[in-house]
Design a protein that fits this description.
Blueprint (H helix, E strand, L loop, with lengths): L1 H27 L27 H11 L3 E5 L5 H12 L1 H6 L4 E5 L17 E5 L25 H18 L1
Parallel strand pairs: 1-2
Antiparallel strand pairs: 1-3
GO cellular component, one term: extracellular region
Main location: endoplasmic reticulum
Keywords: Endoplasmic reticulum, Secreted, Signal
Length: about 170
């Protein structure tokens, strides 16, 4: 009986790896016409090689325990402004490199934490949180009516704000 369960587990593994291999092959083909909406990774396109957390709670926990700042991106899949920012963010090599020093979370829904919407629930908006779990409301973009909004043309400002979030962190801890 023992041997049979081994065989069934092995078969299951083979089936799973075949299914994965099939998906991997599909991703490479540049045929965009018949592409089904496959569930994306947690990156949702903001940086597929980066490690993204799944929930706000997990992100806070990881930030606190790793002593890395947390960067939260609120966005919506069907918002053209979110899509435009995502594209330049994902293609910006320096940002992608610097992002490795953060705990990362992108959300397509609002949390119940009002601190994440200091001036409203608009998208896209980017907020930084210290490992002390303090929202860095002082790190803002260039728009006075939407303090945490960034346009694609503001990508270098977002980059320097990421540097700021890391730098102030070092001096305060």
């Amino acid at each position: 009986a023992m041997e049979r369960s081994y065989v069934s587990v092995l078969l299951l593994l083979i089936v799973i790896s075949c299914a994965l291999a099939k998906d991997a092959g599909k991703k490479d083909s540049k045929d965009t016409t018949t592409k089904p909406k496959l569930p994306q990774t947690l990156s949702r396109g903001w940086g597929d090689q980066l490690i993204w957390t799944q929930t706000y709670e997990e992100a806070l926990f990881r930030s606190k325990h790793s002593q890395k700042p947390l960067m939260i991106i609120h966005h919506l899949e069907d918002c053209p402004h979110s899509q435009a920012l995502k594209k330049v963010f994902a293609e910006h090599k320096d940002i992608q490199k610097l992002a490795e020093k953060f705990i990362l979370l992108n959300l397509v829904y609002e949390t119940t934490d009002k601190n994440l919407a200091p001036d409203g629930q608009y998208v896209p908006r980017v907020l930084f949180i210290d490992p002390s779990l303090t929202v860095r409301a002082d790190i803002t973009g260039r728009y006075s009516n939407r303090l945490y909004a960034y346009e694609p043309s503001d990508i270098s400002l977002l980059y320097s704000n990421m540097q700021k979030a890391l730098k102030l962190l070092k001096t305060e801890l």
